[in-house]
UniProtKB/TrEMBL annotation:
This is Thioredoxin domain-containing protein. Keywords: Membrane, Transmembrane, Transmembrane helix. The chain crosses the membrane at residues 29-53. It holds the Pfam family Thioredoxin_4. CDD domains: DsbA_family. Residues 88-234 form the Thioredoxin-like fold domain. InterPro entries: Thioredoxin-like_fold, Thioredoxin-like_sf. Residues 1-20 are annotated as: Disordered. It comes from the Bacteria.
């Protein structure tokens, strides 16, 4: 029964990814037409947006970096640093991406187990491309909250809490849940809760999450979820990657050997 369930999840992930690609193509055609017809308006809006983001209201000048942060603007799972003798996995996510939630259900525990067992290392990199033109949309707010949780040493737990009760893409997480309910679910309490909320409210990781989002586009990542070993993509949406620890590790090591 467990194998059938895992196969079903992989198949569902594959089908949903295919549907997403078709929808993305349709959106690109529509968006391209709008840009051609309104190029002047887009330029004006872009200039205004850049000026607004230069000094966002309420954002602290005391910008921070997560203690478990990486040079690629990710956060290390369990804080375990990469080493030359272990394969390293990079996971790109958008917290409102439904396929990311399905991938987390399918492979999340396996990745955590392999990291805990010292057989590989991994990091989560966050984008908020699903926000589109919104400057502080729901995906960005979730990314900020996760970074704030990393600031109090609870990234893994907060990450798990977000996916355990993932919001619908079109709705997003209520601010009260990001600041309080998910924090408590992640075990953030007392002074740490106050610090977490302050980090979130003041945008203490604004530069960090913006840099990660910029990296997503600069590296031309095609979408989320994307699992990378080096520069190569682990084809989790193909339905061919095993969900058990040994099989998953073998697939990662095979890809790492090709680098």
């Amino acid at each position: 029964m467990a194998n059938n369930s895992n196969m079903s999840k992989r198949a569902a992930l594959h089908r949903q990814q295919e549907m997403d690609e078709r929808n993305k193509k349709a959106r690109r055609i529509t968006i391209g037409s709008i840009v051609v017809l309104a190029i002047v308006a887009v330029v004006v809006i872009a200039v205004v947006a850049v000026q607004a983001l230069t000094n966002p209201k309420g954002v602290t000048a005391d910008q921070q970096t997560p203690a478990a942060g990486t040079d690629g603007y990710g956060v290390l799972i369990q804080g375990k640093q990469p080493s030359d003798d272990l394969p390293h996995l990079v996971i790109w996510e958008d917290y409102l991406c439904p396929y990311c939630g399905l991938a987390e259900q399918t492979y999340g525990q396996t990745v955590k187990q392999l990291v805990a067992d010292g057989k590989m290392t991994a990091e989560i990199r966050t984008t908020f491309f699903l926000d589109g033109q919104r400057t502080n949309g729901p995906s960005r707010k979730a990314a900020m909250a996760a970074a704030a949780a990393a600031g109090v040493g609870k990234f893994d737990e907060y990450h798990a809490a977000l996916y355990a009760d993932q919001a619908a893409e079109a709705v997003g997480f209520p601010e009260s849940e990001l600041r309080d309910r998910f924090a408590r679910a992640a075990g953030i309490e007392g002074d740490d809760l106050k610090k977490f909320q302050e980090l979130y409210d003041t945008g203490a990781f604004t530069d960090w999450i913006e840099a990660a989002n910029d990296r997503f586009f600069a590296d031309q990542i095609s979408g989320t979820p994307t699992y990378l070993v080096g520069d190569e993509k682990l084809p989790i949406t193909s339905g061919t990657i095993p969900t058990d620890a040994d099989g998953f590790l073998a697939a990662v090591e095979e890809l790492a050997a090709q680098q």
